[in-house]
Amino acid sequence: MWEYSEKLKDHFFNPRNVGRIDDADAVGEVGSIACGDALKIYLKIRDGVIVDVKFETFGCGSAIASASALTEMIKGKTIEEARKITNKDIAEYLGGLPPQKMHCSVMGWEALDVALKSYEGKGKGVEHVEKEDEGRIVCHCFGVPEGLIKKAIVENDLKSVEEITNYTKAGGGCGSCLMDLEEILKETRREMEFENKVKKCIESEIRPMLMRDGGDVEIVKVEGEKVYLKLKGMCAHCPSSTYTLKAFVEAKLKESVSENLEVLEG
Amino acid sequence: MENVIYFDNNATTNVAPEVLEEMLPYLKEFYGNPSSMHSFGGKVHKKLEEAREKVANLLNSSPTEIVFTSCGTESNNFAIRGVLEANPEKKHIITTRVEHPAVLNVCKYLSKKGYDVTFLKVDNKGQIDLDELRDSLRDDTAIVSIMYANNETGVIFPMEKIAQIVKSRGIILHVDAVQAVGKIPIDLSKLPIDLLSSSGHKLHAPKGVGFLYIRRGTKIKPFMLGGHQERGRRGGTENVASIIGLGKACELAMNSFEEEMTKVKGLRDKLENFILENIPYTHVNGDRENRLPNTTNVSFEFIEGESILLMLDKYGICASSGSACTSGSLEPSHVLRAMGVPFTLSHSSIRFSFSRYNKEEEVDRCIQVLPEIIDRLRSISPFWNEKKGKNFKKVEN
User: Would residue A201 show up in a list of annotated catalytic residues for this protein?
Assistant: First the structure.
């Protein structure tokens, strides 16, 4: 027997917002019968606010509860606010999930993501949108793409392949992708470590220096060893901003993170 | 717990009151070691041998052929690994794809250790192909290990024919009969099985005790080395009280076969028929003609098994499921998959297993709440709503 929290049980026995919205502005559908769970959420959006939401779920107790929780969490929120919700928030909202059931919360996160992207991409009146391409499928048993695996690792700070399986189901079937998962985990953890070092250096060394002159800097994104930055404050309009970025910021980052690091304007 | 309706008797059973009664003195005053020389221990020894006789009687075998173990899993390990060790020149094993993990995982382990293992297929009823069995037998086949009755579906294999085929080649036959012993009569004076595993807690004895039947003359090495207990075939001081309980449970079972075939089967059939007749899109998994009288495995299409169990649990009804979500693994039951049951049905399968301690009122209670549970979960399911949508459209057209 799983140890389910009282809140989870409440959302399972009395699920909120069950049903469909026939004229939904956005629909997100993930999973399948073969996978053992599936979720479809319907959003009604007015002026950037999610005014109504309904769901249908095929799945176990925690899948139904996770979907119910998600709908409660996003109802009345702006799209921007909803986009910030991750699987961690869903699990927390329910008072935690057993480790092997974390994938239920990821399913909610995924469905929301698909729904919001469908809304962005095609505007109103979208009837049905397939899950968007998140890279190659790594686990063929459960159809899990690389993008979702990486996202789950970063968001939940996953440290083992077993955890990846608990959160995404990847590797839970025939096991032929386990070596692949090991590689993705190593690679992603390396990227995370790199990004952390960059962040730390910027926070503790670079920003204080720039701020002394009324300037500031923000990380836009990190891709491989390329760091995209945006100068702010006084620095933004400073004629020597390129110089600052290359000669000061990049030099500093190279010194404390990696020789091959490159700073670009984002 | 109050008001528990226990329909999960293939998982474990209640200890029969008569069994507990029989055991208690050996947990209280008669704590002697049956191996001791003194009469205080001797009295325990005598009672232990009486229990052995009762177990032997249930199978129409001889007490010297019964070795007590700690559980069904130990019996299976003992049988398979003991035979292989005693016959080191033979490197081939035959078993089926639907065995309990206590056999399946032993065989998988051995296949990694250099043994060649044949896993026999089953058809959509869960039955093996006897020709495939016959064709798989080889001169270097050390052991054939096939279960008597399946724990998930209750499907009974044609053991007489299996034994005939295997023994015609002089190969050792092991039968995991954990689910069969006590539920259906087994006569080992007629059925040429060499080794047979059983577990106490499946037939109203306590957990932590089982036995392995070893036909006289079978080449097998002991699995657990130690003292001279069990005639040197299984070391370790006997689990006295539980063994005495197991003896009593076998005696009770011997007198209950008719009740199994009438009352228990009646309860099972009542629930099963109700489901099939009153809840649409339900299917029974497994061969209904050759099945334990106490087991039914039903799939409720479009919904997932764990959610059904949770709903049943709210009413105190205990059952189990072949769905992936109940086990912590991500794939549904290996038994249903081997039978080719589609995912839609295997994820939604529920096993109800009865015992002679169940009452008709309990079945009635289940019948009362089950349709609503299924309705509620289906109303949440996108697949059910799709199905319904299509059907509605058909009506409109």
Answer: no
CATH no. of A6-129+137-189: 3.90.1010.10
Closest residue on chain B to A172 (Cα): B330
Give the one of B306, B314, B379 whose C-beta lies nearest to A60's C-beta. B306
| Shortest alpha-carbon distance between residue A217 and chain B (Å) | 45
Q: Which residues of A touch B328 (CB under 8 A)?
A: 100
Say how far apart CA B263 and CA A160 lie, in whole Å. Answer: 51
Domain boundaries in chain A?
6-129+137-189, 194-265
> What is the nearest CA distance from B353 to chain A, expressed in angstroms?
18
ipTM exceeding 0.95, yes/no: no
| DSSP designation for B85 | H
Q: Identify whether the C-beta of residue B194 lies closer than 8 Å to the C-beta of residue B82.
A: no
Q: Would you call A38 and B383 a contact, using CB atoms and an 8 Å cutoff?
A: yes
Query: What is the residue-averaged pLDDT of chain B?
Result: 94
Is there a contact between B382 and A61 if contact means CB atoms under 8 Å apart? no
Q: How many CB atoms lie within 10 A of CB A65?
A: 34
CB-based contact A119:A79 (threshold 8 Å): yes
Chain centroid, CA B4 distance in Å: 22
Q: Give pLDDT tens digits for B29-44.
A: 999 999 999 999 999 9
What domains are there in chain B, each with its CATH number? 17-254 (3.40.640.10), 256-396 (3.90.1150.10)
* pLDDT higher than 70, residue A130: no
Q: What is d(CA B205, CA B43) in angstroms, rounded to the nearest whole number?
A: 21
From 3.40.50.1110, 1.10.10.10, 3.40.50.620, 3.30.300.130, which CATH number describes the A194-265 domain? 3.30.300.130
Q: Do B307 and A59 touch (CB under 8 A)?
A: yes
pLDDT of A133: 63
How is chain A split among helix, strand and coil, in percent rounded to 5?
50, 20, 30
Whether residue B379 lies within 8 A of chain A, CB to CB, comes out as yes
